[in-house]
Amino acid sequence: xxxxxxxxxxxxxxxxxxxxxxxxxxxxxxxxxxxxxxxxxxxxxxxxxxxxxxxxxxxxxxxxxxxxxxxxxxxxxxxxxxxxxxxxxxxxxxxxxxxxxxxxxxxxxxxxxxxxxxxxxxxxxxxxxxxxxxxxxxxxxxxxxxxxxxxxxxxxxxxxxxxxxxxxxxxxxxxxxxxxxxxxxxxxxxxxxxxxxxxxxxxxxxxxxxxxxxxxxxxxxxxxxxxxxxxxxxxxxxxxxxxxxxxxxxxxxxxxxxxxxxxxxxxxxxxxxxxxxxxxxxxxxxxxxxxxxxxxxxxxxxxxxxxxxxxxxxxxxxxxxxxxxxxxxxxxxxxxxxxxxxxxxxxxxxxxxxxxxxxxxxxxxxxxxxxx
Length: 372
Description:
The chain is built from eleven helices and 15 strands. The protein is an alpha/beta fold. It folds into three domains: about 1-35, no CATH class; about 55-125 and about 315-360, Ribonuclease Z/Hydroxyacylglutathione hydrolase-like (Metallo-beta-lactamase, Chain A, 4-Layer Sandwich); about 130-315, Rossmann fold. A seven-stranded mixed beta sheet has the order 1-2-3-4-5-14-15, covered by helices on one side. Helix 11 (about 345-355) links the parallel strand 14 and strand 15 (about 360). Helix 10 crosses helix 11. The longest helix is centred in the middle third of the chain and has 18 residues, at about 130-150. It starts with a helix and ends in a 10-residue tail after the last strand.
């Protein structure tokens, strides 16, 4: 789903750039196209969790549930080398993105029993998330205020993981938050496709999610949920100025339909903009979260009069304590390289691991070589 979506975006970007081609300039060409996606997909092989698979002579792959999004996995690579009469086995662990404990829908990140080197994410290595209870209370307050103010609730959300968590929480608190008074629009074709994929894989859900699926309004079929797949249906939402909940991508507001919804809601003092995910430095989402009074959208200067909220407890990434706790379960606390995080986050997490476990921690840069 994501490969195809990226190919489509790359094709549209190339076409847009080529409209302004100057004499002598080479036309823009997408890095890959749908034909490449189809060819790559035919080569993919499913691998189950906790099922070692030899991928090369002497190299074994084991995937474990990372608890981040549906199907996410930490990667263990065991490489054996014949030395004299015996064999030496070295284990490299790459975490990918690790999910927080007790995340909606998904099982917790599975522990890794041992490693010689851990390459570990550090996205939220310098902060702690709100508890799920505090997050629910904050969202309840936002919807109560939106109902009173008579405006829309606009939620920039990643299509994979975050959108499905939001729908799950809406089902869980549908009556208590008075969500029946709103129309809920899922305005993201990719999020709609991903949400359908979640519905086909309930076997990967945790026990609480399986129970909710059976006893509450189905998160993927809320009675007031409207799925907007085409552009015309999306544009019609712009005429709605009250009691609409609009979930759209991209999650950091760098592209996608969310930018149009921000254009039509940011200037409304009755509207509420709710950020539920990480906003990287330099993105429009980060600019708004940091308190900008005006932003540029489609060539226009848009005043920011709407209420802006940052709800941190819905992150699909483990926080500092969660990362440290996951690492702490590895026998012997092996050397760790912290990646996939801004430098302040990597440094804080490094300090935590050194203090708590006495670990050898490095902060590699592009080109850094590490011997396992």
